């Protein structure tokens, strides 16, 4: 009898636990929740309507309060709700409260300027890896600068949610901040005297097509070979075959590494484990789906972009302008905030110093494609051909990179009276066997970073370029000539991966590489 009673108690206990578990799951489903970007220490964009969204039970009414602003929404059948709060000016920290069947509170919210910061490894590169880190760390007491770093994840379809946290800038946190984003944000913070929020969504080694929605790329016939190539990879992928191939490569590598160690040599690079192409961060739209889509439509001022290295190899470099323009249009459409500012870093100098008059490569083609994309309204470009490193694709001087991006923002978006770009070629004309090149963004005038101006090459109809003599003949004009070319028709400047060039403006900003011909375009 006692054993029977005990069995009944045990059974009742199991039923109670099961019911409690089911109840907890239902409560969790009913909870009002917010996207991860709406969390403690966040920064909201000032002077614009503020979209807020989240999830709750279908049909549940949700009320959101921010200071004196309040709005309500009813959750749809899909469990989503959204609303818009009125504009805020920067001021004292605020608390956001979302109320339904439960209450969610987000504390210590600042209002200021918010920028989305994206790209590959040079955007991901942290302050701790940049130049002068000890000094930068000691000076990083900027509680008005906050960074939200998106966790890296790929996705086959557009996602609603991502993960990440807001960090307040301080000596013990700044080391993990994106260096380019931090130095950009610090300049804005100091010049504008308002809080700055930086949303870092970046992943090293990734191409531009991974950050662009598939629906934006598919209508572009020029991009079909890239998309079709990935579809073919996915169709052909066999996990067992890939695993067997990797194990064979690994066994061979282990033998080679052992021999190298015995000989006192560096071992060869370890083979990489296979990755299902459906989950690759290189796959078109994979990072847009997982790391950009979930952020929209969080109110922004604009975006900064440091990427291009992964698209500089092979014949596809000539597509970069189309790809970058497609990404910009895609993001602007998704945010529905008009043509918000979009600024990028032109690829810096890299690899062996220039030897020939011109050295065409995918790297310089991407640089050119970036310059041409300035034709897209409300865009800007930080020129960095003087701050790269020959032996490191990740130059440590991110201070100048961030500041030059900030100059574009300050001079255009924020209307500050300053020189915000390096010289950009505007026009050319042939005069008595010489080519006159006129520039914009010269400040008080063009300057040579040294005694003699370098970096120019000219050619005649035979398309054979030679190094040229160049002279600054006016505030915005350079005259280029060579006794070897009696009738020049084309001029190039800094046309090499690591050019020997030294044209600047009065603000100390370098001129962008350029050419006036298209003779060896891919």
Describe the structure.
- There is one protein chain.
- By secondary structure, this protein is α/β, with parallel strands linked by helices.
- It is 28% helix and 25% strand.
- It has eleven helices and 23 strands.
- Strands 1, 3, 4, 6, 7, 8, 9, 10, 11, 12 and 13 form an eleven-stranded mixed beta sheet that branches. A four-stranded antiparallel beta sheet has the order 14-15-20-19, with no helix packed on it.
- Helix 9 (320-335) packs across helix 10.
- The longest helix has 29 residues, at 2-30.
Shape call: globular
Radius of gyration: 28 Å
Q: Approximately how much beta-strand content do the residues carry?
A: 15-25%
Largest sheet data = 11 strands, mixed
What labels would you give this structure?
alpha/beta, 25% strand, globular, disordered N terminus, 11-stranded mixed sheet, 4-stranded antiparallel sheet
In brief, what are we looking at here?
The chain is α/β, with parallel strands linked by helices and 522 residues long.
């Amino acid at each position: 009898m006692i054993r029977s009673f005990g069995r009944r108690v045990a059974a009742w206990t199991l039923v109670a636990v099961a019911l409690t578990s089911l109840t907890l799951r239902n409560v969790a489903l009913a909870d009002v929740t917010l996207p991860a970007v709406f969390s403690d220490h966040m920064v909201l964009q000032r002077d614009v309507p503020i979209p807020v969204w989240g999830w709750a039970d279908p049909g549940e009414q949700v009320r959101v309060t921010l200071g004196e602003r309040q709005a309500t929404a009813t959750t749809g059948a899909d469990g989503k709700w959204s609303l818009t709060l009125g504009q805020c000016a920067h001021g004292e920290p605020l608390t956001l409260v979302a109320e339904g069947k439960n209450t969610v509170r987000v504390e210590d919210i600042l209002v200021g300027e918010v920028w989305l910061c994206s790209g590959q490894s040079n955007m991901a590169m942290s302050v701790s890896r940049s130049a002068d880190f000890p000094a930068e760390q000691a000076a990083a007491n900027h509680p008005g600068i906050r960074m939200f770093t998106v966790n890296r994840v790929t996705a086959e379809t557009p996602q609603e949610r991502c993960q990440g946290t807001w960090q307040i800038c301080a000596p013990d946190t700044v080391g993990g901040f994106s260096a380019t984003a931090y130095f950009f944000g610090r300049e804005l913070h100091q010049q504008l005297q308002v809080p700055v929020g930086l949303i870092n969504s970046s992943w090293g080694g990734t191409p531009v097509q991974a950050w662009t929605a598939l629906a934006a790329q598919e209508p572009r016939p020029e991009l079909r070979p890239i998309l079709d190539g990935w579809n073919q990879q996915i169709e052909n992928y066999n996990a067992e075959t890939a695993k067997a191939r990797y194990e064979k490569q690994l066994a061979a590598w282990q033998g080679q590494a052992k021999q190298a160690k015995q000989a006192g040599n560096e071992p060869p690079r370890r083979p990489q484990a296979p990755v299902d192409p459906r989950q690759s961060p290189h796959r078109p739209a994979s990072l847009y789906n997982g790391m950009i889509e979930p952020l929209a439509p969080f109110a922004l001022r604009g975006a900064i972009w440091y990427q291009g290295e992964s698209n500089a190899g092979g014949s596809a470099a000539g597509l970069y302008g189309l790809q970058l323009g497609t990404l910009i249009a895609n993001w602007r459409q998704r945010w529905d905030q008009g043509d918000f500012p979009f600024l990028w870093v032109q690829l810096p100098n890299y690899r062996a110093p220039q030897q020939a008059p011109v050295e065409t490569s995918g790297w310089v083609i991407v640089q050119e494609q970036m310059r041409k994309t300035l034709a897209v309204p409300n865009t800007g470009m930080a020129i960095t051909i003087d701050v790269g490193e020959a032996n490191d694709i990740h130059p440590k001087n991110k201070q100048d990179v961030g500041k030059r991006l900030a100059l574009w923002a300050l001079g255009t978006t924020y209307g500050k009276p300053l020189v915000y770009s390096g010289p950009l070629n505007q026009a050319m004309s042939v005069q008595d066997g010489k080519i006159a090149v006129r520039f914009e963004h010269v400040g008080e005038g063009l300057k040579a970073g040294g005694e003699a101006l370098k970096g120019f090459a000219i050619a005649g109809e035979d398309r054979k370029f030679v190094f040229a003599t160049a002279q600054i003949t006016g505030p915005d004009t350079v005259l280029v000539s060579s006794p070897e070319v009696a009738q020049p028709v084309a001029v190039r400047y800094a046309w090499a991966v690591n050019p020997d060039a030294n044209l600047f403006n009065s603000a100390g900003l370098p001129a962008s590489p350029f050419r006036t011909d298209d003779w060896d375009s891919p």
